[in-house]
Amino acid sequence: MNKGLQSSVPLYELLVGRYRDDILHRRLQPGDRLDSISQIQRKHGVARETAKRVLNILEQDGLVIQRAGKGTYVVDQSPKQQVWGVVIPFVSVHYEDLISRVSALAEPHGREVRRFYDYNSWEEEIRLVARMQWERYEAIIVIPTLDESRTWSFYSCLSPSDAPVVLFDHTMSYRDFTFVVQSYDLGVVRALNYLLDRKPGGVAFVKNEGWTGRNMVLELMVETYRMLLRRRRPDWEPVIFDGASQVRAEAIRTNGVTGIFCCDDISAIQVIGQLREEGVTIPGDLCLASHGNTALARYFTPALTSVDPHNEEMAARLVVMLTGGLGKSEIRQYVVQPDLVIRET
User: Fold this and answer.
1) How far is residue 171's CA from residue 174's CA, in Å, rounded to a whole number?
2) Fewer CB atoms < 10 Å away: N or C end of the chain?
3) In the predicted model, what is the mean pLDDT of residues 84-107?
């Protein structure tokens, strides 16, 4: 054993103190590679478990990052920006309302919210999050790309010293991760039950044409629709339109549809307008419900019956998490329960 380390203090504590002193006094600079486990063993004559313990404590203290297969690196100890970055998969009325609420609640805490769009590209989502970590953002909010399975390995390797990442609005994959989301499937159930209770026929499901690529949220909504329809109307075949532009009076009449569920308020307004031109009235001939409860749902005529995901509650929960000192290894999860707001349709 190195004679310079002989002491009544446990050996691992002496080594941690030595490396910590080198880091804090900038003898080791941010980005420098620290000794590996084997190098610590050789240099200080200690067991492998002792060397591993030293690196783990330094990482828990936020001084280094251990990258599997790449080594251990000194992190930047400079103050973080009081900025929260938000990564969004695409432009939508729903997301604009959600992030605007977050910004309004964050401002009194002296936090700036900056939004970035990855256009539903999982590679771009990873690049944006990595860039914000490098630029020392205080926190990162991610509305995941709609095929979350592609980013799992990246998020699972985040270090405790990285800025906390909170998933927002939805997640299908990250059960062991911090998130504030809405229950999309419960929203579909409440809207469909309402429509099925109103009239005896079948209910059609209208997808959002703008949600391109693999969409795990949409898959969940469609599967929930199929399951509920099988239970409530076993004699009716599911009727699924790929977008609002495909909803026509002939298809509605041929399939015995008496109710329509749209994935978003904009699609619902388009459906109402198209069917009105073909002599089908809503309300009247059909019942309709949408998802989102945006300002469009309230102000359009007729006002839309719509699932309210409670954006104000999601935003408030998120801000409380981030301003309340989200622990480095702490996992917090909150699921907002949506309600159906019944209006004229």
Assistant:
1) 6
2) N
3) 94
Neighbours of 53 (CB within 10 A): 19
The maximal CA–CA distance of the chain, rounded, in angstroms, is 93
Q: Both tokens of residue 78?
A: 């400079």
Question: Hey, what domains does the chain have and what are their CATH numbers?
Answer: 3-74 (1.10.10.10), 81-182+311-337 (3.40.50.2300), 184-308 (3.40.50.2300)
For 240, phi then psi, to 5°, come to -120, 120
**3-class SS at 305?**
strand
Asked whether the CA dihedral 188, 190, 195, 201 is positive or negative, the reply is: positive
Q: Give burial (CB, 10 Å; 0-12/13-18/19+) of 134.
A: exposed
Query: Tell me, what DSSP letter sits at residue 242?
Result: S
Greater pLDDT, 157 or 226: 226
Are the C-beta atoms of residues 28 and 18 closer than 8 Å to each other?
no
Alpha helices in the chain (DSSP H): 11-24, 37-44, 48-60, 93-106, 122-134, 152-156, 184-198, 216-232, 249-254, 265-277, 295-299, 311-323
Cα 229–chain centre separation: 28
**Residue 125 · residue 295 · CB < 8 Å:** no
For residue 211, pLDDT over 90 is answered with no
The pair phi, psi for residue 209, each rounded to 5°, is: -70, -20
Q: Is the peptide bond before 234 cis (omega within 30 degrees of 0)?
A: no
Average predicted confidence (pLDDT) for the chain: 89
307 within 8 A of 187, measured Cβ to Cβ: yes
Q: In whole angstroms, how far apart are CA 138 and each of 55, 66, 85, 160, 272?
A: 24, 20, 8, 13, 44
Q: What are phi and psi of 130, to 5 degrees?
A: -60, -40
